[in-house]
Amino acid sequence: MTVLTTSFGILAPLTIIALPFALFAWRMLAMWRSRDRPAWAAATTAGLDVGIVVVSLEILALTMMPMGEGSTLHLMPGSDILTEFSDDGSLWQIAGNLLLLAPLGLLVPLRVPALRSIPRITFFAFAVSVAIELIQYLLHAGRVTSTDDVLLNTLGAAAGATLTCGWVRRPEPVAIPAQARRQINGVRHPVRTGK
C-alpha cells in the first residue's frame, strides 16, 4: 500500500484542484466553438480537448515528480515485471503502468483523425512512453527508467485504443463519376460544368 500512496498519492488532490478549472475551460471553449458549428459538436470537441490536456498534465505530474536522488536504468525486458510478481513486489506498479497512457489511447483517436488506427496509436504511445522514460532518466529524480514501463504503457494505450477505434466511423469514400466527354471536330474534350 505504501507503493500505491507514494506513486499515485498526488493524483487525487491534483484531480480535485484541476476539475473546476477543467469544467470552466470546457464551458468557455464550447461556447467559443459553438459560433460556427452545432452546440453538441462544440461541446464534444471541447470536452475531448480539455480531457486530453487534463490527462496529459496528470501523466506529467505522476511521472516527473521527484522520488529521491539519482536515476536507475533497467534495460532487460521482463526483469521489472518478474520482480513485481515476487513476494516483495507490488502488482500496483504493473497496473499503474498499464493504466498510465490508457486514457490517451481512449481520447486521442476520437480527436485526431490521423491516429484512428490501433497501430498508429500504439506507435504514438510507444513514442510518448520512451520520451517519458528518457526525461525521467535525464532529470535524475529518483525514478527507475525501464523498458518494462515502456512496454506496459504502450500495451495500456493500445488496449484503450481498441475500445475507441471501433466507435469512430470512418467517412465513406465519395464516388466521383467519370467526366462526361464530348467530341468536337473528332477530338474528345471534357464537358465543363458549373460557372
Structure description:
By secondary structure, the protein is mainly alpha-helical. It folds into 2 domains: about 10-65; about 70-165, no CATH class. About 65% of the residues lie in helices and about 10% in strands. It is built from 8 helices and 4 strands. The chain has helices spanning about 1-10, 10-35, 40-65, 80-85, 90-100, 100-110, 120-140, 145-165, and strands at about 70-75, 140-145, 180-185, 185-190. The strands form 2 sheets. Strands 1-2 form a two-stranded parallel sheet. Strand 3 (about 180-185) and strand 4 form a beta hairpin. Helix 7 (about 120-140) runs antiparallel to helix 8. The longest helix has 26 residues, at about 40-65. It is globular and about 85 Å long. About 20% of the residues are buried. The model has no long low-confidence stretch (mean pLDDT about 80).
Furnish the topology, listing elements before pairings:
Blueprint: H1 2-8, H2 11-33, H3 39-64, E1 70-74, H4 79-84, H5 91-100, H6 102-111, H7 118-139, E2 141-146, H8 147-165, E3 181-184, E4 187-190
Parallel strand pairs: 1-2
Antiparallel strand pairs: 3-4
Helix pairs in contact: 2-3, 3-6, 5-8, 6-8, 7-8
Number of helices: 8
- Tell me the overall shape: globular
Strand fraction equals 5-15%
Domain count: 2
Distance between the termini: 73 Å
Q: Briefly note the structural class of the backbone.
A: mainly alpha
Question: Would you report the number of β strands?
Answer: 4
Roughly what is the average pLDDT, rounded to an integer?
82
Measured as a percent range, the helix fraction is: 55-70%
Order of the strands making up the biggest sheet:
1-2
Helix-strand topology string: HHHEHHHHEHEE
Biggest pleated sheet: 2 strands, parallel
Low-confidence stretches: none
